[in-house]
Structures are given as C-alpha cells and as structure tokens.
Amino acid sequence: MNVAPPDRYSRHRAIAGFSQERLQAMRVAVFGAGAIGNEVVKNLCLLGIGSIDLYDFDTVELHNLTRSILLRETDVGKPKAVAVAARAAEIDGNVTLRAVPGDLRDTLGPAAAAGYDVAIGALDNFEARQRVNRLCRLVGRPWVSAAIDSRHASVETFPFDRHAGVACYECGLPDSVYARLAERLSCGGLARAARAERIVPTTAITASLAAARAVQQALTLPQTSSRRWLIDSESGLASDALIPVRADCPGCGEPPVSVVERLARDGGITGALLAREARRLAGELADDVRVELAEPIARAAACTRCGPTAATRAIIGKPARRVDQTAVFCFGCGGETVRIELADVLGIDELERDLAEFAIPLAFARVGADLLDMTPALPGKEIHRD
Q1: pTM for the full model?
Q2: pLDDT-derived band of residue 386, with 50, 70 and 90 as boundaries?
Q3: At the top level of CATH, which class does the domain 10-252 belong to?
Q4: d(CA 282, CA 148)
Q5: Which of 37, 91, 192, 369 could be joined to 33 by an S-S link, Cβ 3.0–4.6 Å?
Q6: 84 near 101, Cβ under 8 Å?
C-alpha cells in the first residue's frame, strides 16, 4: 500500500479555492521589520509564500523585544532585517528570505519593485511610505500599507496593477503632513543637523491586527480601487472606505513608465555615465529631454570667498538628505559662506558639463517614459535556516 508523503500544507490545500501553488510562486516585498513587519513576515512564512525580501534600515534594540515575536536578546545590535529574516527562516525552510538592510532610498530600485507580485509596507514614517508609493505607482505594482498607534490599526490598499488611475497613498494625506515634512528641512532644502522625533507608542495587539489584514489584502487584492480599513482595538469597531483620487495630489503627478532598464556599470555611477545612458534612451530628442532624478542632489557647491575647495567638491553629487546645515561652514575662512545648489531635474548637457566626474549615488533616474535603475542588482543577502 502506497502512503503519500506528509504535506505541511495539506490543510491549506483542503480549503476550497485556495491555491498553495500560487502562494509558493509569489515574490513579496516587506518594508519595515518592526512590530508590524514581524507579524507580516511570520504570517507569510506560515502560509508558505515562495519568496520574501525584507527591507529595514534599523538595528535591534532591547525595547523592540516587547512587540517583535521574531527577535531575541541575542539579536540586540544586529540589523533588524537580518535578525528577523534569520528567525523567520526557521518557520519554513521552503520560503526564500532575503534581508536588505539600509535606507530604502538607497536599496529599493524600480527593477526590484517591478519584480514583486505585491509589496507590503510596515513603515513608521511618511517619507518611506512616499518612496514605496512612488515606485510601485511608476512600475504598476500593487502595495498595501499597514500602520498602527497604541489603539488603532489601519490598512490601505493601492491596486496599481489593476488601474493606473486609482488613488495613491498621498491622495489621502492632509496638508499638515507636508508641513511637518518641511519642518525637517532647512530653508535651503538641506537636512537639519539634529531633530527631535515624535515617538508614537505601539502595541503587539494592534500590530497583529494590522498585519493580519495587510497579508489578507495583499494575497487577495479583490478590489480595483484604493481603500482604507480602520479598526479600533478597544471598541472593536471597524470601517472600510474608498480613498478618493485627489485632483492636486503631488504623488500622482508622474505618469507610469513603460520601460525599466538597469544601468550598465562596472563601478560607481558618474554624471558622465548617466548622461551617456540618458542620451542613448532619448535619441534624437536628447537636446530637449530633462533627466528627472530620484531625489534632489547637490549639483554645485563653493565658498563665496574661497571658491571651490576639496571640502565643497566632496559635497557635489550627494543626495540632499546626506548634506546637513553644517556643510555651509567653510573650513578655509571660517564663515557660513558655502553656497550649495540643489537640483532634481537636469538637462543631459548639464550632467555632462557640471557632474561628469562626480559620483551620483541615487536609486534611479527617469528619462521620458523610461526608468534607469541605478541600484545594485541584488541588494542584501539571502538568509538560510541553520
């Protein structure tokens, strides 16, 4: 008598309409390895998802252990993405996990975003959500954003793969959010040297609610419009509402792209290399096409008294977020005399003239309807069960 080998997914297969094979073929990105991210990754592994890429910039601290099921005291000081992925690999060895530590603005490129079946955001700040929203919208991939406070859990779903005209994450943001974001920058657009962050308390209960709903929505994506689900963990009351398209939404200004190309390179990307590739894509329109950068960079820097110096040259090409207010001080004359010019849109001739020899460490640049991916081909590392 032949006995079938044990199947860990047998209960899944017994559910009518449930396709374990579909789950095992899926590639999912999870952004954030905190309270919600832990729960999301745990749920995905229990379901037997094929591949999970986990992005997070932070390191494990002792206080994280009160609301993160996949972390232990021995993980303190380790990158969260690595620690959580390593523990998650113990749940199901069939799931491929990749940990991607670092800032999303450096590690997430359009080619990677386009390769995911769905992205799940478990993020705690607006800038990171804006980044994921922008890339998923540009390449037409669906994403789900989960957020919590000490009492409420919310899950927003953006099916960009179904219809490019659905509301995006920024359609639902009040103007006060942009005012708060502006406060984090100096009047010249540089990062403030130091700032106090407002800490929002979270709990494991609301995180588990948000994660459960987020995973459910990510794997089914039944709707063709963007929606917001909100639950009060104390009263148990929940709502599910349409997110309307905002006519003046800053996030909907860029049309989706038709082509994503990885920028060929042997080493770092310079202005000359970016200009060459942009000129190739633009063809006969090269003289008129503007290159839209993923974020503002310092296109020029010099002291008004001393002129260009080694210190000011070191600023050129850097993303504005990496240049804080202290950069305006000149080491030569001691004054606040360094003038820094920022730009996020440049002509090809400007790249060739002003930035040819300077490294431009950005994730991507847009040339017309094409995106040039400037990130490493495989950021992070694959995590295996010991």
Answers
A1: 0.88
A2: low
A3: alpha beta
A4: 44
A5: 37
A6: no
